[in-house]
Design a protein that fits this description.
A: 272 residues; MetI-like fold; 78% helix; elongated; B: 241 residues; alpha/beta; Rossmann fold; 2 domains
Chain lengths: 272, 241
């Protein structure tokens, strides 16, 4: 057995044990009467795998008004839109400010101040301005992603090795060509490195938006809040699991993109 | 400090560290403006980075996000050469420095010596009239250094650029240069200008075994050693030669 399969086997084993314990401990330990059942762990709060499994299929069926996969699509749509807009605007702003020391010196305190503001505190304001729908969720994701990408690109653009710029100049580059062939690629290396955390944070922004947005906003965040309203632990667990898996898939996907774009870096060369 | 460099001449600047060798080179390159005096290129005072100058740094300045071929191609692309012409010149350059098979490799997988070879041909492929080199082989091991010196000499013999080569390695200066300019320790002045009377083409290994080489080395070492001794006594004031 190779090391990799051994790790995989252990992971599956841990999953099986945890699921087994969860299922076992949430079944009645003692049934005194129909109304008095004693549990090791009360499934009211954490539900149990079998119930979650059946709720998962129920929530995906035609029996509910908005099926689970549509909620997921809504969350994904807002996340990816917010991510794309955030990365684009963050990159442009970071590059512009990174190569303009005077402008950066003037604006820097404002940017730091705005960035120190907990993003969640802005949710009511964003809701007030953009309502409960897609726009509000995208704006929230954008607000978080923008700053991550902005600061990374800013560092990258500011930290371009002057000798690389000199080298390009000696090879006959114009200022435009230096920007395109030296500064942008250098800064992009930093930008790309911020993509994986950015997509996770975009998801956070969207879910917060969905907590507030209610039914008109839709999304997995809405399912969580709705299950809180109906005290339905199984539905909440379905939402959390779907969200967790979505987060993993998004992060892994973006990481693949990152590895492809940064394939010239030593850390990605080793694996090539 | 005042000196002339002739067309197609290979001049080496040597001196104790901190004497301003690199600063002089950066002034010629137009990177640093002289506080006093002027630098003339073909009789005209210098303003900014001149177009016909190539520069090889000691530091690795190969662009890590471009493959070997893309790095070498860069100067040609800046000058707006067509794709076919670029590919032809890059292929020729890669053959000249023996980097065949590494065309599509990123610099991260190359050794320091290979990266410096890429930097060298990248500068030469645009056919500069003047080549400035700031301790280009200073960070390499002896074996790699000798191989690169040999390659540089071979390339230079073909095209005959004007070269100003900064080094603290006297042996390297004698092996490569037509003239060696010895600078004093701080404040940097010209201590001595020495014409190297060794025939060309030179073999970087065998030349070291010849009597002529030993004579040149002794003569220059006397001058440079004197300078070191003066510097040690804290009276390192040389005269302008």
């Amino acid at each position: 057995m190779t090391d990799r399969t051994r790790v995989a086997v252990w992971r599956l084993l841990i999953l099986a044990v945890l699921l087994g314990l969860w299922e076992g401990l949430t079944h009645p330990a003692v049934t005194k009467s129909v109304s008095r059942v004693i549990y090791f762990v009360d499934p009211f709060f954490i539900s149990r795998p079998s119930a979650i499994w059946s709720r998962f299929w129920h929530l995906n069926s035609a029996a509910v008004r908005v099926p689970l996969w549509q909620l997921l699509l809504s969350t994904l749509e807002s996340t990816l839109l917010g991510f794309a807009v955030g990365v684009g605007s963050g990159f442009v702003a970071g590059l512009g400010l990174g190569r303009n020391a005077k402008l950066a010196a003037v604006l820097y305190p404002y940017i730091v101040a705005f960035n120190s503001l907990p993003r969640i505190a802005l949710v009511p304001l964003v809701t007030m301005i953009f309502g409960f729908g897609l726009a509000a969720k995208v704006v929230l994701a954008w607000l978080i992603v923008f700053f991550i990408v902005f600061f990374n690109t800013f560092q990258g653009a500011r930290g371009v090795d002057p000798d690389l710029i000199h080298s390009a100049r000696f090879l006959g580059a114009s200022e435009r060509q230096i920007m395109r062939t030296v500064i942008v690629p250098s800064a992009l290396a930093w930008t790309f490195a911020s993509l994986t955390p950015s997509v996770s944070f975009a998801l956070i922004g969207v879910v917060i938006g969905e907590f507030i947005g209610g039914e008109s906003g839709g999304g997995i965040g809405y399912l969580i809040i709705a299950s809180l309203g109906s005290l339905n632990a199984a539905d909440m667990m379905v939402a959390l699991l779907v969200l967790g898996i979505t987060g993993i898939v998004l992060a892994l996907g973006i990481h693949q993109v990152e590895a492809r774009l940064l394939r010239w870096r030593p850390e990605y060369q080793a694996r090539a | 400090m005042s000196f002339d460099v002739l067309d197609e001449e290979f001049v080496a600047l040597v001196g104790p560290s901190g004497c301003g060798k690199s600063t002089v080179l950066n002034m010629i390159a137009g990177l640093v403006a002289p506080t006093r005096g002027t630098i003339r290129l073909d009789g005209r005072p210098l303003a900014g980075v001149p177009a016909q100058v190539g520069y090889v740094f000691q530091k690795d300045t190969v662009f890590p996000w471009r493959t070997v071929a893309q790095n070498i191609e860069l100067g040609l692309a800046y000058r707006g050469l067509g794709r076919a012409e670029r590919a032809r010149r890059v292929r020729e350059a890669i053959r000249l420095v023996g980097l065949e098979g590494f065309e599509n490799v990123f610099p991260a997988t190359l050794s320091g010596g290979m990266r410096q070879r890429v930097a060298l041909v990248r500068s030469l492929v645009v056919e500069p009239e003047i080549l400035l080199m700031d301790e280009p082989f200073g960070a390499l091991d002896t074996h790699t250094k000798l191989r690169l010196q040999a390659q540089l000499l071979a390339l230079w013999t073909g095209k005959r650029q004007t070269v100003v080569f900064v080094t603290h390695d006297l042996a390297e200066a004698i092996t490569l240069a037509d003239r060696v300019i010895v600078l004093t320790s701080r404040p940097g002045r010209i201590k001595h200008v020495h014409a190297v009377k060794l025939p060309r083409p030179r073999d970087v290994i065998r030349i070291r075994e010849t009597d002529e080489y030993a004579r040149e080395f002794r003569a220059l070492w006397r001058v440079l050693g004197e300078e070191f001794a003066k510097a040690d006594q804290g009276a390192g004031r040389g005269e302008v030669a």
